[in-house]
Amino acid sequence: MTKLEQAVRQHLRYNIAVNLLDGAFFGLGWGFGSIGTIIPLFVSQMTDSATLIGLIPAIHAVTWQLPQLFMANAVARQRQYRPMVLWMTVHERLPYLGLALVAFFAASLGHRLALVLTFLLLLWQGLGAGFTANAWQSMIAKIIPAEARGTFFGAQSAFANILMSVSAIAAGYILEKLAAPYDFSLCFLLVLAGMGISMFFLALTREPVDTEKSIPERRPFPGASG
Q1: Domains, the chain, ranges and CATH?
Q2: Has this prediction a pTM greater than 0.85?
Q3: Distance CA 184, CA 22 (A)
Q4: Mean pLDDT per 10-residue section of the chain, whose length is 226 residues
């Protein structure tokens, strides 16, 4: 067993615990601002365009998947993934603060500007998630051995979905009881709060540096000088 494997085994229970909490609170936050329900409902307050409302999940899918094609090489060169994960994941969480501000000042901004800002923030959020994905998956694959990985992902998904259901119900109550601009503003701030707690637990991950990993030198494009 290598030193890296020994370090992984030493911190396995701890890493499973903090990353389960990361996923659970991420799910809790996500339920207050779901791309499939809350965001389309928010946009429908500003436009009746079925095209714009229908674009919301499509934008998220594309911006989540496309960046992974461009991040694979950079991620593969990392001896430790956590710093990259933490830097990138800020960009999938912080946009909800912007959405809270847009929701609060929507009447002053006007529907057209509020819509533009909303879609720019959704693009930012989706790209942030996409740029984070490869590094996060690589980190999890590194710190959780293959025989425990399936159980971990199943448990994380279960906790995240349970808490997401709870927060979705709470979001419905908020939207029913509070008037604009406090309704959606509060929901988006609660997303930020849940994801902030999630990121706190994510940052506690103990990932050993892989000093034995072979990283090839960067090669210039064919025909480049130097």
Answers
A1: 13-203 (1.20.1250.20)
A2: yes
A3: 24
A4: 89 97 97 94 94 93 90 90 96 97 95 96 96 96 95 97 97 95 97 97 96 69 42
